[in-house]
Design a protein that fits this description.
Helix content is 8%, strand content 33%. By secondary structure, it is mainly β. Strand 30 (214-216) and strand 31 form a beta hairpin. The relative contact order is 0.07.
């Protein structure tokens, strides 16, 4: 119950009439609210014109949503920044930054410290924590990125996981520009993947990968079947 009250503290003391008035104020300013009865907007939220909010969506804290973005249905955004022309569907966004022209969801989770740059695509059932994804990067589905710095135009294949916790400490994964991470790749941090590198499907990468290299296997080895050193 305490956790529930913390999440919805923005609405404690607000009557149904208060919430309706907040929604109507945004409608009068050019925000499109599909179903006001199921839309919850906290008093400190800022919305630009032509934002569309679909049913059963919650915008909490000091959240900002830029012009032309579509939120919901069934989305929860708490103390986050959302840029222009973004789409967020059936997803949870907490203390994150989303730049322009970003697609999130359905069923994605951005945790504290997540930052998606322009044009990022984050697909269904993905989770990001304390990580930056560079412009144009695509993270398909069923993936987890924690404590990672990802460059631009990187492909994160389905099932990719950054193994960032060793039981005592968290470690960082760095992936440079134009890299292709194959499906079901395990990235055992601390780790750096170079520019234009590739990992094969199902690889367990335990050592740094140089630029332009292809690695695959368990543990991952280079194309010449040599361990990466």
């Amino acid at each position: 119950m305490e956790q529930f009250n913390n999440h919805f503290s923005n609405f404690i003391g607000l009557t149904t009439l208060d919430r309706e008035q907040i929604n109507q104020q945004w409608i009068d300013k050019g925000v499109i609210i599909i179903d006001s009865a199921t839309t919850y907007i906290a008093p400190k939220v800022v919305l630009e014109t032509s934002v569309v909010i679909y049913p059963s969506s919650y915008l909490l804290g000091s959240t900002y949503v830029g012009q032309g973005s579509a939120i919901g249905p069934n989305s929860y955004i708490d103390n986050s920044q959302v840029g222009q022309n973004c789409t967020i569907r059936f997803s949870v966004i907490e203390q994150a930054v989303i730049e322009n022209n970003v697609e999130v969801g359905p069923f994605a989770h951005l945790r504290k410290g997540s930052h998606l740059a322009d044009g990022v695509h984050m697909g269904n059932f993905g989770e990001i924590k304390n990580s930056y994804l560079g412009p144009g990067t695509k993270m398909g589905h069923f993936s987890y990125l924690g404590d990672a710095q990802i460059g631009s135009n990187v492909n994160i294949g389905a099932g990719t996981i950054t193994c960032n916790y060793d039981g005592v400490h968290k470690h960082q994964t760095i992936i440079d520009d134009n890299t292709f991470i194959g499906s079901d790749t395990m990235l055992v941090a601390p780790l750096k993947i170079g520019r234009n590198a590739k990992t094969g499907a199902g690889s367990v990468v335990t050592q740094d990968v140089p630029d332009n290299a292809l690695v695959y296997g368990v543990p991952a080895r280079s194309k010449q079947n040599k361990s990466i050193e």
